[in-house]
Amino acid sequence: MIIEICTTNLSSIINAQDAGANRIELCENYLVGGVTPNIKFLEKSIRISKIPINVLIRPRSGNFIFSNVEFDRMFESIQKFKNYNISGFVVGFLDKKNQLNKTLLSEFRSATDGYDLTFHRAFDYLVDQEKSLGQLVENKFDRILCSGSKIDSEKGIKNLNYLNSLARDKITIMPGGGINTLNFKIFKNAGFKEIHLSAIDKRISLDSNYDIIKEIIEMSK
């Protein structure tokens, strides 16, 4: 099973790779759900990371209905980040009817050609997820990060299982949101190939916690 850790600082990256995580989703500002990291943070992250980095492209917090100006910023960020040694990108967006825009899907896949591409938890807000999954497959997205349209993945497990049955080998469904050491085995036993978590214990800090990641890694074997 592939374990992806959402990291928003350098300590989290070090903890993730030292504990045995497989991949990093790099972003900033954990408390608002993550936004596009700045270039300096990206450069420092690449220097210390020994595992693949996928970069979140999200111009602001809040909803996922972006303006044309915001989309332009997203594409500009992608072009800048392609100058660095990263593995992929994480994007997500909706139109005003909570559907996917075919043209934008194609444009994002074209802009990230040759890179790993994840559609993030904006998927949880789509009104026709079966159709949307098909559109993401058609545009050769690699995975969908979602929580089954619930506040966390454990509550959304029924829908996640359904999406996974639709996806088969065409696209990866990666549960994310509220995954921890207590509920991890639910996802392992359900047969998911990848999971996403921040592994943060807020009682301690907003760093991804080495011990939590290590325990998840051990349980995943």
Q: Walk across the major sheet and give the strand order.
A: 7-6-5-4-3-2-1-8
CATH first level: which class?
Alpha Beta
Give the rounded overall mean pLDDT: 97
CATH topology: TIM Barrel
SSE-based structural type = alpha/beta
State the distance separating the first and last CA atoms. Answer: 7 Å
Helix-strand layout with pairing:
Layout: E1 2-7, H1 10-19, E2 23-26, H2 39-48, E3 53-56, H3 68-81, E4 88-91, H4 102-111, E5 116-119, H5 129-138, E6 143-146, H6 157-167, E7 172-175, H7 184-189, E8 194-197, H8 210-220
Parallel strand pairs: 1-2, 1-8, 2-3, 3-4, 4-5, 5-6, 6-7
Helix pairs in contact: 1-8
Which key features would you list for this structure?
single chain; 221 residues; alpha/beta; TIM Barrel; eight-stranded parallel beta sheet; 8 helices; 8 strands; globular
Notes on the structure:
Helix content is 37%, strand content 15%. The chain is of the alpha/beta class and 221 residues long. It has one domain: TIM Barrel. It has an eight-stranded parallel beta sheet, covered by helices on one side. α6 links the parallel β6 and β7. The chain is globular and about 45 Å long. It starts with a strand and ends with a helix. The model has no long low-confidence stretch (mean pLDDT 97).
Concise structural overview:
The chain is α/β, with parallel strands linked by helices.
